[in-house]
Batch of 2 targets.
Target 1
Amino acid sequence: CVHCSSASGHFVFFIIYATRSLIIQIHQFILQEDLNKKMLDGLLEFVKKSAASFWCRDDDWMSRMRASEIPTAALVLGVNMPDHTITFESMTELLHDSLTPFVASVQAKECTAMKQLMQKVLQRLMGTNVMVDEDEAEADLGFHTRDCPQKRVNCSLSALCDWYQSATKKSPVKSPRKRLSSSQSEFLQSPPVVVIFRDLEAFSPQVLQDFILVCSQYVHQLPLVFIFGIATSPSTIQRMLPHSVSSLLCIELFQSLSCTQHLATIIDKLFLTSKFHFKFSAKVLQVLVGIFLYHDFSVCNFIKGLQLSLLEHFHSQPLSVLCCHKQEALVHAQQLNDRDVERIQQLPSFMRYVEEQVPEEQVQLLTSSEHVKGVCQKLLKSLHKYHKNFYPALRCLHVLTSILPKYPLGKQIRELYVLCLEKKVWETQEYDSAMQLIRMLAKDELVTCLQKCVEILTFCKSKKLKKVGQQLQDITATCEKLDSKKIPTDSRKMMCTWLTACFVKSVVFCTQFPRTHLYPPESQPLYEVWYYSSSGTVRRHLNATPRTSIQTALSHPYCYLQNEALKNDSGIISSAAPDICIIYKLHLECGRLINLYDWLEAYATVATAAEGKDPSAIEGGKVDELKHARFIRAVSELEFLGFVKSTKQKTDHVARLTWGGC
Amino acid sequence: MSPAKRAAEVSGLYVRFVGDAEVLEHIVERREGAKVPKGSVQKLLALKEDQGPQECEGSVGEQDYLDALGTGATAGEEDGGGGGGGSSGPGGSAVFTFQTAKRSHKMAQMASEMARAPGRTVTFCSPGSPEAAGSPSRGSRGAAGETRTPPKVRPTGGRGRDVRSPAGESWASRLNSFLPQGRKVRFVSSTPHRLRKRLAAPNLRSESDSDLSPSHSEDEEDDDEEEREEKEELREAELTTPSKVAAAALYRTPAKKPKKGLEPSLVEEYFTAHASSKVTTSDRTLQKLQTPKLDQETLARLLDGKPSSYADEINQLNKEHEKFFSKWMLQLQLGFNVLLYGLGSKKPLLERFRTSRLLGVTHLVVNGFFPSITLKSILNSITVEVLEHQGSFRSPVEQMDFIMKSLRQDPSLQVYLVIHNIDGPMLRSEKTQQALGQLASLTNVHVLASIDHINAPLVWDQAKLSLFNWLWYETTTYLPYAEETSYENSLLVQQSGALALSSLTHVLRSLTPNARGIFRLLAEFQLESRDNPSYSGLSFQEFYQRCREAFLVNSDVTLRTQLTEFRDHKLIRTKKGADSVEYLLIPVDPATLTDFLEKEDAQ
């Protein structure tokens, strides 16, 4: 760390960072749980129900019809597969804890054939059991010795049935969770066997069909339940399985939250709140959202970006020690050392603040470190206050503008947020057009919006905003009152003026409100403490372009080697450049095949000239050894980098592997 | 620049230049791959010395294309490039240039241009554009021009010569190979007299056809020429009579250039160039070299101790990267893995990191560029060296499971994996990367790796990327890939065969005397027929016959078993001939084979 003054200082940042990333993880965890809670609850209910129906099978016609159907839950999870891991993990855990010890989760790439699939399922089911019944050491041991040779010999579902019978008999009412009531004892005696197919699309249809067919034969003895993880759409099942097979399944569909909704929730919970002090500048947020929307749809990667920027922020900005809860920050501010005070004085936002002060104050701020600390505390307080007001105001504005046609200020709140971070939102054209559209809103639409605003404002902590909320409520109340009253004809005119007055008031509110609260954070002194703004770093580390870098280094060595001999206008290279650059440049002139001899000769000409000799001196294949060696090295380096490869098409030729920039 | 000229330029007038050879080409259909007479390069060289400084503007075509491409390349460049020196890199258009169709001796010409002016510079921003020099006609045309009309105006400034050719222009002219090679050159000099010559490709064939009709008389052209001279004080340094015809004619009837319509897409361009299997390169081979092929040792000796001319800058660059060490360490500990990319060997950098930061902790160095590295060897070193497990495993999967389990059970054991070239040829397979990714995803395994191949990122899909959890670092070092490339079987390096020889002797030593005899038989036969260029191997039947005669085998089953063993050890190769007979061949060069037999005899 370049900036860190001491090891202890470094340590402090690290600790803070560590706690913070912990907070993020926890937040993330809660979110994940919350988001999928609905789906998981539904799933749990489904498994429970299907298992129950397995045992309380009446002799009625319906259940006999369903007898050979395997209950199946199809989970539509979205296209980013790596993100599903967390969902599946929490699901397995949940099933394990509350319903059944028999859960096997399989992935397509480990099951390319029926045999392997069967083997994996059996292994996981039986293995799971071993892990669960840890106190039954004897059975455990016996199981192991019996299991290993048996698996190879007898890898069939009938073996599984036998095992299931014995396992349920052996561990009677061995409740995985104690809080399950005794009324479920019958249920616990025969917990369902759940098989999770994590990535249904990747399975070979034939394997899947066979497995389902086989399983349907045993459905009377084994309470099987399938769970399909689907990335694309439920129609995949129809596409993969013929009717004869899919008719054996009793499918219920579960839809998870889409990843964009997931992202919106994360931004909402982590950024649009004054509780979490680390903030992104507009650019960084745009970069991360861009990576999400245009590259991977991965919420996990977004979180990774967040963690990285958090780390970078704490690593590169020593003043980030002040980026924490108000009380803590005030204490930290009191303890700042002289160097930190100097750093504060050098912050652009602080310098702007100093310039605005009266001369005596300016002198104080520039000389007395104690005074700076005091002012710093004051400024930190106001920074906290500013954020307390900022987010409710932002939400209000979003409520008002998100119903407008064509969404002049963006449909998602994050778009509006970026806009507000960048500049004074009320000075933009989009804002003007939005305000014009608000004026044209129907009364009841406007009133509904305003009521939502009132809700937001009354729940926030700031007194100032609460007051505004109160005023707004008065307006809406009057509006409604006027609406509900039977208006006698004579007083109608008067009512109209009342109504207009209310309307004007509310519109004035809409236009004035943001001006007082939605100043961009750059306007706040000390904002650098909270805001991370190096979008380039984030992009470089997460979304790198290795090939561009290599090609830049080859064609423009001056970008990396600041030597005057290499300095030139763009696109120009001198003969004094490193060998590999010259070789690269020469190879760009060639077509599909490159004649090595010509290449060598061309290189020798350049290299001789670079030494200040007359290049025409080389005649008839006389190339000195050193140049030959340098040529060989450069060519093998290009080969190593993947620009050329050897070919047998023609003697002493190499093939070019790149085409233009591709 | 005279006002008239400026006006002409603004209104889109172009002076077009068509060389005599091009006119000829235009009438008689051009033959592809016409060879340049030898020595033309040198001739050209001498001539070009006299030319005024010239510069061509980058044409609109390329820019348009890049605009259409969107910000992709350029935006990436903004952030991606220039990280090393802190300066912003050049635009994407400059980095990703477009290649033109092959011109013979293009490279030689480029080289001579670079060479001629060591202090000066040559631009390459649109490499291989149809600079006339590349085409066979250029030499003669230049010569004629030189003798006929010596330039009246010559730049006096000592400005360096910049040659840049218009890429977009070249595109247009490349589309139809029968179109004459266009040339668009703008003269710029620091003197007040600005020479400006614009030569563009005649885009409409019919138009130029009519213009080039033989009815134009010489006088007429001369008039035109004079007229123009009066107007613009412009001198064409290289004009010959026939080309004047064309130039003047075109000047008289300037046509609008339908540039956009003629621009082919990059894809079309690609397929046009790759459609024919015809190769238009010269037939010279390295045999012509008087210096013999160098072997690995000589190469190393020659290159050793020859510091680069930019040693200071390179050192400074590497010092910059070393500042990241503490950050890498921190990020590794926090669950990220670090991936280095950029030009130059990153091995020394990683080694310095290892020696300065990892000495006290468990770490494993994997040389991914090593040609015989396997996943099994990596896993073995983890199980044996790190986990100190002595058992063997039935399959890599089982071994992986064991490693994962052991490492999960012991979170206090922190393992650092330093992988030089995780994109190495032996590690590229899906399974290997999956296994490495699984290792990397463990919380107590920290991976620090480097990549060099330009297509290396293609090794990972979304799932693997999430396993690896990379943080990318650009570390351009400009250091030579000395160790990395020493394993590569470069075309230019004479293989000493030492490795092949030792492997041969080692394997054979473990075989039965009969088996050795069988191999010897094959080797001898191969040496006997080494002068036969069409020798494709010994057929199985014949080989069996010979073996029987030598009492080495008693049935063809025995021989087949033996051959399978050889094949498994890569001692022999079998090939199906045209008559579907199996041919056996030892894939070792004759010299090594002779050495081997001699060694065997000595024993």
Target 2
Amino acid sequence: MAARDSDSDEDLVSYGTGLDPLEEGAGRMGRRSGACSELRSGHCAPGWATERDSVSKKKNGDEDLSEFGIAPKAIVTTDDFASKTKDRIREKARQLAAATAPIPGATLLDDLITPAKLSVGFELLRKMGWKEGQGVGPRVKRRPRRQKPDPGIKIYGCALPPGSSEGSEGEDDDYLPDNVTFAPKDVTPVDFTPKDNVHGLAYKGLDPHQALFGTSGEHFNLFGGGSERAGDLGEIGLNKGRKLGISGQAFGVGALEEEDDDIYATETLSKYDTVLKDEEPGDGLYGWTAPRQYKNQKESEKDLRYIGKILDGFSLASKPLSSKKIYPPPELPRDYRPVHYFRPMVATTSENSHLLQVLSESAGKATPDPGTHSKHQLNASKRAELLGETPIQGSATSVLEFLSQKDKERIKEMKQATDLKAAQLKARSLAQNAQSSRAQPSPAAAVGHCSWHVALGGGMATLKASNFKPFAKDPEKQKRYEEFLVHMKQGQKDALERCLDPSMTEWERGRERDEFARAALLYASSHSTLSSRFTHAKEEDDSDQVEVPRDQENDVGDKQSAVKMKMFGKLTRDTFEWHPDKLLCKRFNVPDPYPDSTLVGLPRVKRDKYSVFNFLTLPETASLPTTQAPSEKVSQHRGPDKSRKPSRWDTAKQEKKEDSVSEFLSLARSKAGPPKQESSPLVNKEEERAPESSTNQTVNKGVDAQAEGEGSRPSMDLFRAIFASSSDEKSSSSEDEQGDSEDDQAGSGEANFQSSQGTDLGETSSVAHALMPAPQEPPPSIPIQKMQIDEREEFGPRLPPVFCPNNKDKHKTKKEHRRKKEKKKKHRKHKHKGKQKNKKPEKNSSSESSDSSDSQSDEETADVSPQELLRRLKSLPLRRQ
Amino acid sequence: MAFPEPKPRPPELPQKRLKTLDCGQGAVRAVRFNVDGNYCLTCGSDKTLKLWNPLRGTLLRTYSGHGYEVLDAAGSFDNSSLCSGGGDKAVVLWDVASGQVMRKFRGHAGKVNTVQFNEEATVILSGSIDSSIRCWDCRSRRPEPVQTLDEARDGVSSVKVSDHEVLAGSVDGRMRRYDLRMGQLFSDYVGSPITCTCFSRDGQCTLVSSLDSTLRLLDKDTGELLGEYKGHKNQEYKLDCCLSERDTHVVSCSEDGKVFFWDLVEGVLALALPVGRGVVQSLAYHPTEPCLLTALGGSIQCWREEAYEAEDGAG
């Protein structure tokens, strides 16, 4: 017996370490009985105990019992059973580690060799009444509900799966007697494994289960099997133990391995995705173990988004973040129509406010609320008026209705009156305004000349735009009214008082004051309402303004003298504000100097479109002084813009001819000469004009004069005579003043030019008359000239010919030159009626020109006249044969 | 400290004729160095543009595509592209390697006198007889110019570009300098039709040649006259002028078949280099070395200083 015992002991030892002698003799039966008593008491789950029992029996009994069939075996199994039980949690942890270890199944050996002994601590605890699977501590009265897995347990994945943890749990829930106490829940030890690798935080390596078996056939049911898989870990060793190792079709099916799916099976389409989803089937990892999260069935929806993204040690928030509350857009009123209408323009509203302010202050009356001049505030009569209907008598709301029928007719008449009168009026009113402003300096007037111009311009514009002349019948009154408007536009408080005629009686004044106020009100309202319905044209095609560069390079004469004196620098330099294109700045890697401006190029201003002088760009330097006799002159026909390009070919010669007097003069002018904008003394105007106009009574004359080379360029007056602003008096004046120096003419030309700019409007009437006798003179004489000029101008410094210049051509060129002149002459004849004078100058000029070219060629053999050059260049084959 | 700086070599003038190339493209309207001075471009009156190695005298490539004579050309900073303008009113952007036309900018109303790249070859500036300068964008496919500088009253004969300035000489006798950084236009009146302008290499001065047979050196900032150079003849033709590689001399073509060198500071004539019979119509100065290219008739000449020894194989 003893020997057998020892034999059996030895047998046992072969499986594990030897049992403690202490256990050996004493506790076997007791322990066995203890286990049985546990069974009986019902503290253990019956299924669990029996299963274990049977397993252990089967395991050990297979060999031992069958061979020897003796009791000690049973005792040994009990021990073994006990040790297994106690290590259950640890075992799971180990299995988990095994599954995730680099070499799967490496802990298999450890499983085989299990120490079957208990530590002293266990013994002591057990003696104190502790049982395996329980926590340490006083027994609690009642289990705190269904035990939920601790978060700590969850995280480390070591807890028993809830379903398999305790079979009795369900019972407890159902039936909870008062007098029953429970042991506290066992605590799962936290695995404080130091991290000794350099992997990422949640790196787990390739999960062999998933990589080899998991995805072989079907898609993972990730969510259904989530918890199951977590629980499965325990069973891996038992149920899937045989699968450890490489298996699969590629390696054949071993004898011990489960067969894979039929490799010849037809694939069903259901295995494939038919819809593109944001989530890959499975976890999208194909075996790579991303940090796996603990999942609850109910949270699966949420987890879907976080598959593979939750790090170990983190869990999903149980409470979702409170999402921002999105408020629905406000409900629109049912009758709302999404149409935007623009408010009346700011300018007019400000005007209104001014107006109303003025009204309230000057008349002391209560006025209607400003800014109510929208279309909705118009009453029927106003609308009717706007539409041009005949107003219904009786509803006296507008000034026009105060007027009698007769007055209205007269107004209509006056509306159709010529602009002439209006222009006159305006001009006069402007003049008066200027005077009055000078007489009584007000803050606005103190701003100065410029502001005056601006203000007047604005006033004019509005007046023009309105065309509303309620007092047209009485020009004086109308004038006062306009004055009033102008003042009001400037925001002058005492506008009304100032405009009223001081000679009137108090009553008259009061009446007029009322009238003006009402008229202004009406004007403003109609203006604003109408203007609100129209938008500005992109391009004002019928405006008589044209954009021209604000700054012009001028004063060529002064510059020329400066150049001659080699006084380069300030005298010869013009500086302009110039706006480069934004893209150009970008391309040049330069910051935009004017980031706020949309302007490109030189700043431009508006000028009168139909002023000839815009296009002639005739600067004041009409004054290349040419006091010499005509015969001395260079015969070249200089265009009106000669002064711009004074020295095309013969700069030197020309300069030669300029005498020092002229230089002196131009210098003097540069000092004393008034800037363009300033008005020249108007006093001299008439006298000065007379001589000029006499010289150029007709265009013929002008042309002749030009042909003669009297000035190397026609004087300003020629153009004025043709186009606009000569007057009767001029032509009537005597001819004896012809001898006036050009400089005088030029000066007067300047004056005329300036003054005509300023007083164009005022003079139009006289101009119109003045034009009457002259009109047989057709303007096209300019185009002809221009043509010629253009021909010359087209060529700057030319390119050298391929062959050396050949002087033999000269004769031919001269001829051709003459021929051209002839042609021109014919042209002129055809155009003009003035014959007598034509011929001589023409001859003169042609001979002169040839002379000059001759002389040129004499002077410098290689030099040739421009015409000749031109011709030569044209005829020269540029390509070498 | 211990050693004094080596004394700078006295400037040498290129007066040794190294090479004469018959370009075979009609009259050579302009000759231009590339950016580093190793190659040169010649613009022919037979509508072609040719790329040469001037020292070896080898023709590298012929660019044809212009509809009329080529009047000016320039190379980009990276030698990857060329631009040219000509009598066909077009500005052409070429690919150097392939010889293909990359872009053709049309818009000028007259023949194009002068073309320049900007520093980064993103914009071509072309001056035309139509009195405008147009800035063509090479980056985008935009057919119209980025900006048109039409302040000139007459044909634009010369355009030069610095990193932030555009210098233009016009036949109206004014030299205009558009300063992009300051957003200003400086217009200097010279009085006589300008044939050529250029910046000094230090960027402080501008050199202007005009049809009164005078070159003027103006202070860029103030417009003051720093020097005046006379003696050559330039009364009819559009001739080039430039400064030597170290700004020591002013160089100009002349209508009497010579190239004139003036000392920049003294203003005295240093050398009148006879090139041949006819008009020296164009010249180009090497950016770093005393090497000059001149164009006379249908050929170009390469000049070096006296001490120059032909490098290996470059003979």
